[in-house]
Amino acid sequence: MGMRPPIATYRLQFNASFRFVDAERLAGYLAELGVSHVYASPVFKARRGSMHGYDVTDTNLLNPELGSGAEFDRMMEAFRRRGVGWMQDVVPNHMAYHVDNGMLRDVLELKENSRYFGFFDIDWHHHSRDLRGKVLAPFLGKEYVDCLEAGELKLVFFDGEFRLRYFDAELPIRIESYVEILEAGLNRVQGDEQVSQQLQAAISDVKRLLKELILPEKAQAVKDRVKMLQRGSGAVHNLLNEVMVQYNGDDRALLDGLLSRQNFKLSHWRTAMKQIDYRRFFNISDLICLRMDSEEIFQETHRLILQLTGEGRSSGLRADHVDGLHDPEWYLRTLRERAPDDYIIVEKILLANEQLLSSWPIQGTTGYDILDCVNRVFVDERSESKFNSIYEDFTGNKAPYSDVLYWCKKKVIKQLFMGDIDNLAWLFKKAIIKRGYCEDFSFNRLKQALTEIVAVFPVYRIYLSKSRCNERDIEVIRSSLRRVRQDSPELVYELDCLDKLLEELRGEEKESAADYDALRCFMRLQQFTGPITAKGLEDTSFYVFNRFISLNEVGSDPSVFGLSVASFHEFNKARYDEWPVSLNASSTHDTKRGEDARARLNVLSEIPAEWRSKITSWSLMNFGKKRRIREMLVPTLNEEYYLYQTLIGAFPFEPDERFAARVKAHMVKALREAKAESSWLEPNLEHEQAVTEFVDRLLDISNPNKFLDDFLKFQREISFYGVFNSLSQTLLKITVPGVPDIYQGSELWNLSMVDPDNRQPVDYQRRIRMLSELTK
Length: 776
Known about the structure:
By secondary structure, the protein is of the alpha/beta class. It contains 30 helices and 20 strands.
């Protein structure tokens, strides 16, 4: 049949509050709206209560919280009858680090005897002796010994399975420990020969099963035998409960000894920032990454989606976070082979005139490139110097964005990723020592050099692989080395070592182990430049450099003020020639603000003098509303400037009694993301409260409010012209090369702030009524 690209897509965010039956009711509405394909968030089994679906626990089951298989089938049939196709978001990079993740549970129970042992990106031979042969479990709220002494760690038993419980979190006990626990029960038997015999028989059976059974059935067979033991005798059941009491009793050494023999190592959650032996999704410790580098792993994790594709029920795929994968091109080629007729796009953010690789067998990206292009064409380039002056005069911040970004990336590395940098340094160290490079080589300076390289890296990642070591990617690393060499001459020896390793990558395919040794170092490095760039750029600098926050958007460069019409046409011509059916997004679940908030803010770029006048007068009006904390007035001027822009962009067309609460929640998140006066790691509650109180005073309608009166008059004027920007933006999205995408609810005004604000329930009944009136 061949690939048929969508005409228009509509993104739906599935969760327990928006299920398959809810989507089924929208089939007629979406068809009438002109949507050709539903663009679905992950619908696979995820952690209980997941609001987004990216914390998958089983890639081959539907999420029961979204509905039953029959409800899914009815929904799909409803869309099919109305000619609406299905494009599914798939998550190849990571899964939930959770006991409900059956593959990971099997690994923790059986380790190398698990068929899934190589599926997860875990370093079982970590350089730290404490982690060797174990995977870190950084989920404790305090140090392990303190949790143990407080009795917060509990051995529990149900349905034939032993687990370690810490409040709501659970981890599976390794199967070999079942013998140890049952023997502890046997030692407690006093005078009951029948119970003793039952336990002895069960222990013998478990030992035999562990020795004889082939791998896939081993863990379940042992659990089934223990379950049979438990259910076969009330006396045995009571005895096992007594064993749990014994392990969880005052003698902490018993439980401590058992836990020391597990395949996981419990630790405080902060440990993962400094020491880690598995790859996480960004810095999220409860999302563990897959290797996704073999046919076996691909096949096992894609059975359900390939079944839906093979049956023709899904005709499009969106690959989430391909930049995390070991070799994205291998993955995409494998996906294309299995889904030859599917429309395939990838979540990929392009920076610094970066081009999507033409060798990838896909139709394009999720659309952040066109989002940025369309947004910037509405920003008046001529006002850049004036906005520079306004921002500097109001806040006192004069640092160029390039410096801000560098500092932000350094900050997130030191706060969140030093464990990963340490692992990278050990990997490079082995390769350097093996070759005898550099007599003055220092491990600590090597870590510093790698930190600096990642901090100045100009793109999210490059794509070196066994079959692809091109000069362009090598030059990206080399240019980073040159910049670090210039700024940090004390690292010259370590940079020389890295330069020599890099030189080995020149040429064609790397076939020998020696060749791959150097390549493996840089392939590992490129898997971490993306997460660090994302956290430093999107989740830090976008809340620090507040010159004009319409440009602080995923896929955008805040330092590039506007786009000429000529450049806009050049972009679209290239897009038509190279990626004519790539997705055209304007809002997503990850954007920092809704498309209409950006469009409204862009009006300000046309009236810099009025904007300067307004913020100057507002700051004077609101000076008394601030709170002094020690020597600082809160909010700071940078925070205040960000807040005024946020209010302009997000202020609703219609009264919203929740608006003040939404803004306050947003400001708390913005403060923590900025990592200046508060952070997620060290929340400064006093500072946050002062900022939220300031918001309350600004939006207070219970008393005369000179600021609010003046603000609303100005805001309504900006809002009026913003409507024209919004409509023009929508027209461009629909008509430029590519497939227009509508984020749920954005067919009406989208003035949302960053998540979770942009994931609010959508009033579809209102939209259905409005469309019905329009089409009468």
